[in-house]
Write a structure and sequence with these properties.
Shape: globular
Number of helices: 19
Subcellular location: Endoplasmic reticulum membrane
EC number: 4.1.2.27
Family: Belongs to the group II decarboxylase family. Sphingosine-1-phosphate lyase subfamily.
Cofactor: pyridoxal 5'-phosphate
Strand content: 5-15%
Number of strands: 13
Protein name: Sphingosine-1-phosphate lyase
Strand order of the largest sheet: 1-7-6-5-4-2-3
């Protein structure tokens, strides 16, 4: 001990002797400067990791004299091109109330406006999921249900008890399809209706953030998503100040479980799996993600916005559907749209949670408002009771047998479309579609030029990137026209093969250029400019 103490004294004396030559101010400033440099380097490294070195360099170049002006002019050209004549429509919009009300005559104006919409029947990817015309059959039924309750608002539960009861039943019936009756679910599945998949996702993310903050004290939350996860998760991240860790998909275009695992850290609040993902119609490995979530005690949200009213029935019909619902250990929340394959009116979705302890973090309660005590379950305060009634009517009128029948029809047509695309020389299907979304690309022709030709024939498909591709989301609208789709697709590919190059008015050059631009910030600015000039 004495030897150690003597050594310490010698080292102390040597250090003091060496530092004595410096000014006291230097001795104080040096470590502070070193700390500042270290923090600057750390911030720079974090910026490179988040944005990429190329994006940072391009951002610096934009600051050069003349460059920003040139870029602004070029962006305006692109936005004008994307508008495709929409400016004239915007200029003709009403900006003031009519001096004298139109009364019943307003219906004629509505009919004239509606007549200007494109012919959507059977021609759109997704969009309209109910078969037939909007003035007959199931359409007529849900429209009648909506009109009966168009004046109601579930915010006033004491007044509109019928709507509150219908919402509870829609949630319970949806939960029953997604594993609530399974013993492994825990028997406490609960949830609420929302305005659509995006709100369901926003609420699930917000709830997971607050739940994990109360459970683990996480104040700098992060969530892990596959690059195929819906853009609503990016919206949620912006709204709720959550860092996104985006993981590339694997060679099968599925969420990479090993990549997810590498991203988990002390700030991770949740992971996201899709069943199926919007771009390619593929079901992520939910069971493996559930094992990760359980092991690290984090939340796992399953996006069933597309699959919630198809996969349970496809499984009953014998299709090889991997596990996807609350029967999977580790799944803490699910979003499922009723207004898609649930055949309900637009603006109806359901968000579900494994138990009430989690869901409580979705609610907002205010105790200090002079207007009284206030509590709200979802993002919206007032909500349209007519939509709840429409969803309830849709589910009750279709029933289990009806959903089995519609699922059988659309799954059969989806497989026919998949086989038909695979038989077209020059095209390939991306992955192995589990459901009703079929994505396809080409190594022979510019797929966006093919899309332009298809658009000229009246089809409205979804353009994808990484890789450049298109997809069709098959609905009941397509069951009678799928042969026309395949014929037009074959003709469009042949046209592009014979005459490669963009067509007049086509969007292929813009889609192609956007996919290749290394500066994603500029692409984002283009999208924002386009949106700002459109609404």
């Amino acid at each position: 001990m004495e030897a150690a103490a003597e050594l310490a004294l010698r080292l102390r004396a040597a250090a003091n002797d060496r530092l004595a030559r410096y000014e006291p101010l230097v001795l104080v400033a040096a470590p502070l400067l070193a700390l500042l440099v270290a923090r600057t380097l750390h911030a720079a490294a974090a910026a490179v990791a988040d944005r990429g070195l190329v994006a940072i360099v391009i951002s610096a170049v934009k600051l050069l004299p003349g460059v920003s002006g040139y870029i602004a002019a070029e962006k305006k050209k692109v936005v004008d091109k994307m508008q495709s004549g929409g400016t004239s429509t915007k200029n003709n919009r009403r900006a003031e109330l009519p001096t004298i009300g139109l009364a019943e005559e307003v219906i004629k104006d509505l009919e004239e406006l509606k007549a200007k919409d494109v012919d959507w029947q059977g021609k759109c990817s997704g969009t309209v999921y109910i078969a037939g015309s909007e003035s007959e059959g199931h359409f007529e039924l849900i429209n009648k249900a909506y009109s009966m309750f168009s004046h109601t608002n579930p915010l006033h539960q004491d007044v509109f008890k019928s709507v509150a009861n219908m919402e509870a039943e829609v949630v319970a019936m949806t939960a029953a399809l997604l594993g609530s009756k399974e013993k492994s679910s825990g028997g406490q599945i609960c949830g609420n209706m929302t305005s659509g998949g995006t709100e369901s996702i926003l609420l699930a993310v917000k709830t997971s953030r607050d739940y994990m903050r109360s459970k683990k004290g996480i104040t700098k939350p992060e969530m892990i998503i596959a690059e195929s996860a819906h853009s609503a998760y990016d919206k949620a991240a912006e709204y709720f100040n959550i860092k996104v860790r985006r993981v590339p998909v694997n060679k099968e275009f599925l969420a990479d479980v090993k990549g997810f695992k590498r991203c988990i850290n002390g700030n991770t609040i949740m992971m996201v799996g899709s069943a199926p993902g919007f771009p390619h119609g593929l079901i992520d490995p939910i069971e493996e993600l559930g094992e990760l979530a359980s092991r690290y005690d984090i939340c796992l949200h399953v996006d069933l916005c597309l699959g919630g009213f198809v996969l349970p029935f496809a499984r009953k019909l014998g299709y090889p559907i991997p596990p996807f619902d609350f029967s999977v250990k580790g799944v803490t929340s699910i979003s499922s749209d009723v207004h898609k394959y649930g055949l309900a009116p637009k603006g109806t979705s359901v968000v579900l949670y494994r138990n009430h302890e989690i869901r409580k973090h979705q609610f907002v309660a205010v105790t200090e408002w002079t207007g009284g005590l206030y509590v709200s379950p979802t993002i919206a305060g007032s909500r349209p009771g007519g939509l709840i009634a429409g969803a309830w009517a849709a589910m009750m009128s279709v029933g289990l047998n009806g959903y089995l029948d519609s699922t059988s029809r659309i799954m059969e047509v989806s497989k026919k479309i998949q086989r038909g695309i695979e038989e077209i020389p020059g095209l390939f299907v991306i992955g192995k579609p589990n459901m009703t979304v079929v994505a396809f690309g080409s190594d022979v022709v510019d797929i966006f030029e093919v899309n332009d030709i298809m658009s000229s024939k009246g089809w409205h498909l979804n353009a994808l990137q990484r890789p450049n591709s298109l997809h069709i989301c098959v609905t009941l609208q397509h069951t009678t026209v799928y042969k026309d789709f395949l014929k037009d697709l074959q003709d469009s590919v042949d046209t592009v093969k014979a005459n490669p190059g963009p067509i007049s008015g086509g969007m292929a050059p813009i889609y192609g250029a956007a996919g290749k631009m290394p500066d994603r910030g500029t692409v984002r600015e283009l999208l924002v400019e386009f949106m700002d000039s459109s609404c």
